[in-house]
Amino acid sequence: MEGLPLCFMSRSAAAPRPSLLPILLLSAAGFTILTTEFIIVGLLPAMARDLQVTIPQAGLLVTLFAFTVAVVGPPLTAYLARFERRRLFVITLLLFALANGLAAAAPNIGVMSLARFIPAVMLPVFWALASETAVNITGPAKSGQAIFLVSFGIVVATIFGIPVGTLVSDAFGWRTAFGALAVLSLAKALLLYRFLPVISLPGNPVTVTRQMAILRNPVILGHVLLSTLVFGGMFTTYTYLADILERLAGYDGTTVGWCLMGFGAVGLLGNWVCGRLVDKRPLGITLLFGTPMVVAMLILIPLVHTYLPLASVLAVWGICQAGLFTGSHVRVMKAASESPALGASLNISGANIGIGLGAMLGGWVMKAYGLEKVGIAGSVVIGLALALTLVLTRMPPTGRVKHPGKENGEKGLSPAPCVNCEP
139 phi and psi, to 5 degrees? Predict the structure, then answer.
């Protein structure tokens, strides 16, 4: 089994089809982890009122989480990749349980900031290594499908986690939503400990320095920048979607929760389309979903008072957002095929830099020009992402890069993966 950094095999080494149970368990854990990050979008208005801060100030909690993920993610993932996976995943879920419990009891914005910082440290580690684990179950030829299965937890979090959190907040208070996440995190930790197999690791772990060598590849850096722009554009507007629906559309908290439920539900279609196409056209996915997203963001506010057109716009946006979530992750992992776990972490970092900057940009636009303009701001950033996509499709291969997993004296050079050769 040379060449596979992880092994999910039965006692028979020749078993052709490893169990998908580990992927499903990781997907279920991913639901809780990603809900922890994004649930704040639906709770923002209620939290701001209770903690006695403005909406833009509460929005900085999104920025804090995102920037922590971006800064800590790659080096911490590269370092922790040497540790046994089950233990690492279980510890991560226990920390999420602790952080969500602290958030539920937070008396002020300072304690809430600490409660958001703790899970932000471990989120990129879990997501990157879970994605790499899934790829090694199915093999690199089906990496898109593997990541699709794991990322299904993200889509379910968007469908049920964020909207149900909003509904729970409206009925019982936002603290109850965080308390429920604490219980779920603890339950998922126990499930992983009970059912996830001990995962064997290579005898000689790759050093952090050798893994980080992929940063010398300009194509990889271009793909990470593209993820930054994509997520920056999405979250310039998405961070304040609940506020848009409350203040501009005039919906109450329950109606906003159901709107977010529909927004996430249609994302299943985007995730499915992405899973079918992304292995062959990773850059094409950005064009396919990014273009209609620009249109949807531009016309969101003008149609906010008309029920059916608004529902249609949110449906298009939800489909595109889910597709870009999965598509960006697969695209960067394929570009960084020499070190896919680090590639996944770099994508998470780039995406979270975009999320943080997007939340800041949306808050600034709201204060300077009004909530009505955040859709335009988001569409401009997505437009920049589409322009960069066209540039990447025309970039020649970068040549040969040092294989981060090879020792001196071995064949340490391999051609850079040409994931940018098709639109």
Answer: 95, 155
Alpha helices, DSSP H, located in 196-217? 208-211
Domain that holds residue 398: 21-196+208-415
Average pLDDT over residues 335-364: 82
Contact predicate 321/238, CB 8 Å? yes
Q: Specify if 8 maps to a domain.
A: no
In a domain, 421, yes or no: no
329 touches 147 (CB < 8 A): yes
State the Rg of the chain over Cα. 21
Number of domains in the chain: 1
Supply the pLDDT for residue 143: 65
- Tokens 């990447």 map to which residue? 392
Q: Is residue 201 part of a domain?
A: no
Distance (Å, whole) CA 25 – CA 94? 15
pLDDT 10s digits, 386-395:
999 999 888 7
What one-character DSSP code corresponds to residue 396?
A: P
Can you give the CATH number for the domain in which 336 is found? 1.20.1250.20
Most confident of 2-6, 190-194, 313-317: 313-317
**Residue 82 belongs to a domain:** yes
What is the DSSP code (8-state) at residue 159?
I
**Is the CA virtual torsion 106, 234, 64, 220 positive or negative?**
positive
pTM: 0.71
Q: In the predicted model, is pLDDT for residue 271 greater than 50?
A: yes
Written as six digits, the tokens of 346 are 């770099």
Q: What are phi and psi of 420, to 5 degrees?
A: -110, 20
- Residue 418: is it exposed, middle or buried by C-beta count within 10 angstroms (0-12/13-18/19+)? middle
Sign of CA dihedral 242, 296, 63, 28: positive
Gap between the Cα atoms of 235 and 365, Å rounded = 13
Smallest CA-to-CA distance from 392 within 216, 222, 227, 217 is with 222
